[in-house]
Amino acid sequence: MNFWKVATTAALFAAASTWAGDLTGPQNNAVRSAKQYLIMQAFSRHGLIHQLSSDAGDGYTIADATVAVDSLNVDWNQQAVKSAKQYLSMQGFSCKGLIRQLSSNAGDRYTGSQATYGARQAGAC
After folding, report:
1. Which of residues 67 and 16 earns the better pLDDT score?
2. H/E/C letters for each residue in the chain?
3. Which 8-state DSSP code applies to residue 67?
4. How far apart are alpha carbons 83 and 98 in whole angstroms?
5. Between the N and C ends of the chain, which has fewer C-beta atoms within 10 Å?
6. Angle subtended by helix axes 25-40 and 62-70, to nearest 10
7. What residues contact residue 56 under an 8 Å CB cut-off, 6+ apart?
8. Range list for CATH 1.10.10 in the chain
9. What CA–CA distance (Å, rounded) separates 116 from 81?
C-alpha cells in the first residue's frame, strides 16, 4: 500500500513539474503576479487578464496573461461574490445595478451569470 502512495505522489509531482515547465518565463511571472492580485482583491477572468496585460498594469502580452490566468484554478463565481460584497460595503446597489456593474466593460467584466450569482450571494437580490 505504501508503495502505491509513494508512486502516486511521485507521478503527481512529475506531472506538475512537467506542466509548469510548459510555461515560459514571462508566463510563470504572470502566474505569480496573478496570484498576488487575487490575494489583494477579487477579479473576473477578463479583468485579471486586462490587469496583467495593460500598460497601466503589468504589461505582459495578452497571450502570456491569458495562459497564466487560465493555468490557475480560480472559482470565478466566488470572485464575483467577493466583488459584489466589496461594492455593497461602499454603497447601495439595486440587484440590477450591481449585476450591471459587475458585468460591464467599464466595471469588473464578469459574465452575466457570474455577475448574477455574485449579486444574489451578496444579498443584493
Report:
1. 67
2. CHHHHHHHHHHHHHHHHHHHHCCCHHHHHHHHHHHHHHHHCCCCHHHHHHHHHCCCCCCCCHHHHHHHHHCCCCCHHHHHHHHHHHHHHHCCCCHHHHHHHHHCCCCCCCCHHHHHHHHHHCCCC
3. H
4. 10
5. N
6. 60
7. none
8. 76-121
9. 9
Q: pTM value?
A: 0.80
Nearest alpha-carbon partner for 43 in 65, 21, 19: 65
Q: Which residue has the cell 497601466?
A: 56
**Grid cell for residue 61:** 502580452
Only one residue has cell 489583494, namely: 40
Assigned CATH class of 76-121: mainly alpha
* Neighbour-count burial of 64, counting CB atoms closer than 10 A to its CB (0-12 exposed, 13-18 middle, 19+ buried): buried
Give the least confident one: 67-71, 74-78, 97-101, 105-109: 105-109
